[in-house]
Amino acid sequence: MGSKQKIKNILWPNDLSKCSEAALPHVLIMAKQYGAAVHLLYVVEDLSQNDPWYGKIDVAHVNRLIEWETKKARERLQEFGRNYLEGIVGYSKKIELGDPASVILDFVAKYSIDLVVMCRKGKKGNFPMGGVANKVVENSSVPVVITPNAEAEKK
After folding, report:
1. Residue 55 CB: number of other CB atoms within 10 A?
2. Which of 60, 63, 65, 21 is nearest to 42 (CA)?
3. CATH classification (class only), 9-146
């Protein structure tokens, strides 16, 4: 990074997986080093936007799932804030609905994010780099720090 660029806002997209949690020490180190605000983002995937391969989607059922996931995410984000981010200046948490990669990239632009710190694998974790992380790296207008998954951190 050039000496002219100052990091004021760090985005930590978190899907509440072990891998996302393993990114926390990296987020904290950078936030403290730069005196930056940390924006904790959870994205509830909008299942109603999926193609109806098996027939018509029961929107009421999908909405109940979204409500449940949002409630659980809010509880976990509160816990993260209380346990780890209290001392961070400008700490915020947000829950959005949509496609995770698209929401992350939109968040970067909307909230003047200077740096994204995220884990390489998400909840599904089937490949060396998850689909969301890959899309964010490929399309981000700001630097993206990709942290190892939780298992790699233990080695």
Report:
1. 6
2. 21
3. alpha beta
Instruction: Map tokens 């992380």 to a residue.
Output: 133
Rounded to whole angstroms, the Cα distance separating 75 from 72 reads 5
The more confident residue out of 73 and 120 is: 73
Q: How far is CA 9 from CA 69, 88, 123, in A?
A: 26, 11, 25
Q: Within 13 Å of residue 146, how many CA atoms lie on the same side as its CB?
A: 17
Distance CA 88, CA 90 (A): 6
The span from the CA of 112 to the CA of 60, in Å, is 35
CA dist., res. 62 & res. 126, Å (int): 25
Domain boundaries, the chain: 9-146
How large is the C-alpha radius of gyration of the chain? 16
In tens, the pLDDT along 34-93 reads 999 999 999 998 877 766 666 677 888 889 999 999 999 999 999 998 999 888 888 999
| Long-range contacts, stretch 46-52, CB < 8 angstroms, 24+ apart | 46/97, 46/98, 46/99, 49/99
